[in-house]
Amino acid sequence: MAKKIPLRQCVGCGEMRGKKDMMRVLRTAEGTICLDVTGKKNGRGAYVCKSGECLRLARRNKGLERSFKMSIPGEVYDTLEKEFENLEAE
What we know:
This protein is α+β, with helices and mostly antiparallel strands. It is built from three helices and five strands, in the order E-E-E-E-E-H-H-H. The strands form two sheets. It has a three-stranded antiparallel sheet with strand order 4-3-5. Helix 1 packs antiparallel against helix 3. The longest helix is centred in the last third of the chain and has 16 residues, at about 75-90. The radius of gyration is 13 Å and the shape is globular. The termini are far apart.
């Protein structure tokens, strides 16, 4: 029997993809938002495709706000974009 691949929906484009093809954005218990590279940290997670375009879409359509049920300041998105760029450069 084939192994089931865990699918997650991108908060930017809304596409369903394998968990390994996506980046996990995390809201910790303290309310801070960061990229979870390992995918194993504790907290509420939301998934975004590994492209800057999907992150921009999530910013425009407030996908992360809906997932985390809180308002997210612009600086947080700027930080996430920088982290994304660093990962893409590696």
